[in-house]
Amino acid sequence: MQISNEAPAKLTTDHTNPPERPDFISVKDFNFFYGKKQALHTINMDIPERQVTAFIGPSGCGKSTLLRNFNRMNELIDGIHHTGDIRILGKSIYDKGVEVISLRRSIGMVFQKSNPFPKSIYENVVFALRISGISKKSDLDECVERSLRGAALWNEVKDRLHESALGLSGGQMQRLCIARAIANRPKVLLMDEPCSALDPIATVKVEELIRELKRQFTIVIVTHNMQQATRCSDKTAFFYLGKLVEYADTPKIFSNPSEKQTEDYITGRFG
Amino acid sequence: MDSIASHSLDFFDGDRSVSSKTVARSVTNRILSGICITLSLLTLVPLASIIILLLQKGLPLLGTAIFTELPPAAGMSGGGFGNAILGTLVMIAIGLAISAPAGILSAIFINEYAPTSRLAQAVRLVAKLLTGIPSIICGVFAFAAVVMTTGTFSAYAGGLALAVLMLPTILLTAEQALMGVQSAYREAALGLGATRFQTIARVVLPDAFPAIMTGVMLAVARAAGETAPLIFTALFSQFWAKSLNEPTASLSVLIYNFSTVPFPHQIGMAWTASLVLVAFVTIANIAAQTIFSRKN
Fold this sequence. Notes:
The complex is a heterodimer.
Chain A: H1 2-6, H2 9-14, E1 25-34, E2 37-47, E3 52-56, H3 63-70, E4 80-88, E5 91-92, H4 100-105, E6 107-110, H5 121-125, H6 127-131, H7 137-150, H8 154-157, H9 170-182, E7 188-192, H10 200-213, E8 218-222, H11 226-232, E9 235-240, E10 243-249, H12 250-255, H13 260-266
Parallel strand pairs in A: 3-8, 3-9, 6-7, 7-8
Antiparallel strand pairs in A: 1-2, 1-4, 4-5, 9-10
Chain B: H1 2-13, H2 16-58, H3 64-68, H4 82-113, H5 118-131, H6 135-150, H7 155-179, H8 183-191, H9 196-224, H10 228-231, H11 251-258, H12 264-290
């Protein structure tokens, strides 16, 4: 992984054993603009290693925008700019030396609408390897099994790896997208409302998977579903109108929030 | 609200004044349907009559010699137009070799790399204007650009004229094909760390390929029948072409030449050449619609 390799030596030794870094991703005085419209206002937060951090808040509050800055996906949009900094493992993702391609290769991303390529299940999983120039069959086979097992999909698809991914059910497609995202062994897994298009049973499976995956990955999940945040996250951040209103351990946010706005939102009084 | 309620009961109470309205409605409906069906059938008449006529007049001379032999001299019988079939194929190949890469790569640029740039807007506008240019102008252009400078009519010049003709069709259909690719695929690929080029080569193009090929085949079908751009550029030849740099026969120019002479055998051959050309164009069209559109 590009990022960890280039991180200062003493920090890399720190996180080989628990305790995990509390500031795996560190956001400092971050402002973000779409053209003249400011979408994020002075965000400061530390996201801990190998835990699940949930971003909640009403639509348009900036939670997805922040998530999409962690792998600089927002840069596909014209007319954006930012101030402040985001550091992963102590290294700024905006440093001159950082290639956005290698940043994205070391961060997995799962989207709201499952978007497997119109290719076979196998080719979907190994896509990240193929674009890095890996084509040795044994490496690819190993990756497919490891990733599909990691996404709890192996047993369902192992006999039809070379059939089209578009023949899977909605929940299977989303787990395939998770398998594809973890194929390259990323450090971070970003999930943008991964269950909003799934039925309750598929949602339960993906949530179980998220709890399983946090042993290996630092996970940030954007969700509209507050039960989901309580079920699978360790920390929760509440955003409103582009500001980070409150950020604390999940049980505290949902049982004893410090801010009036947080309480109003989680009790359904607005939003 | 009252009227809606009473109408809904018409069916049961059998009120005569209302049922006459219903009859009138159904008569109007039938008349309009009848007009639509008749007009639809009428559109089939030109195509059907062309095909029947071509089969009637063209079939008698159709045989293997048509594909292998050279055109007969004036007043002579026998022979074929193998050189014209070959010439048409060669010039379409030259045209495609120029227009397919240029059109598809331009479409990739204006849809994937810089859709809102000035250059993309200019290319889009020029391509749309180019679709409206009469084909004879393409011929005049290739005449000035190639025939005048090299001093000879040639397959190159004919191919260039056809390329100019095919370019806007290929470019615009390829752009539509790329626009039809879900943006979620691009997002997924870029999110996995693919470069823009990898995203296009591995995800976007494979998905758009059938639709792009449909556009290419339609362009080929159109170019194959063009006479005007070839008269100025490839002219015609009685012989097998020994190089691409000499006057070259083509089906469309052969039809034009042979249908204006007073010899019945040549006129018969013009009919047969028309049949071969229409069969070629039809096969190209059907191939475009079946092989390449299986995606949906």
